[in-house]
Design a protein that fits this description.
Elements (H helix, E strand, L loop, with lengths): L11 H18 L11 H7 L5 H20 L3 H14 L2 H6 L15 H17 L21 H9 L15
Helix pairs in contact: 1-4, 2-3, 3-6
């Protein structure tokens, strides 16, 4: 049972669009017929074909291509288990009501400490790269009609409902 009801701000809809991109990528990586050597920037561009190819190229240049390749190099069963765990954990409200059960990545079959760390880094950088950061002059992932997501704006929006310290269920960060 959750300690308190969790009400997401309206800007959470923008965050969920980022989750959809991650899910699409993990689903493609979970394909048992995936040819590992074909996973590169062009492959990511084909998975995220609706995004600007130049934006995807810059996203991959930030080290993400190597992380995606490391996930692709995992066994097909480990990649499938990661995709299934991602889908399960994205039912956050259901998990909270049933007392959590957020699995540590290292407990996923076929995972080791290095792969778990790589996946965690991939997701942390995803949220950084897919959101706008004016200090770094990074445009982030432009959503529809000029709507963008910034880490700062989302945090301010979220914390306005909860004046106490808030911890992210994905990364354990503030």
């Amino acid at each position: 049972m959750a300690l308190h009801p969790l009400k997401l701000p309206k800007s959470a809809a923008l965050l969920f669009r980022i989750v959809v991109l991650q899910k699409r990528l993990l689903k493609a990586l979970s394909d048992p017929t995936l040819v590992v050597s074909s996973v590169n920037t062009s492959w990511v561009q084909s998975v995220w074909r609706r995004l600007d190819p130049e934006w995807v190229r810059k996203f991959c240049l930030a080290g993400q291509e190597g992380r995606i390749q490391a996930i692709a190099a995992a066994t097909p069963s480990a990649r499938r288990a990661l995709y299934e765990e991602f889908c399960r954990q994205n039912k956050v409200s259901k998990l909270w009501l049933s007392s959590g059960d957020f699995r540590d990545l290292e407990t996923i079959p076929g995972f080791n400490k290095a792969l778990a760390s790589n996946v965690a880094d991939f997701f942390k950088i995803c949220y950084t790269s897919l959101s706008t950061n004016t200090r770094r002059q990074w445009a982030g992932y432009a959503l529809t009609k000029g709507r963008i997501l910034s880490n700062y704006a989302y945090k301010e929006d979220f914390c306005s409902n909860y004046p106490a310290k808030v911890v992210c269920v994905y990364c354990d960060g503030k």
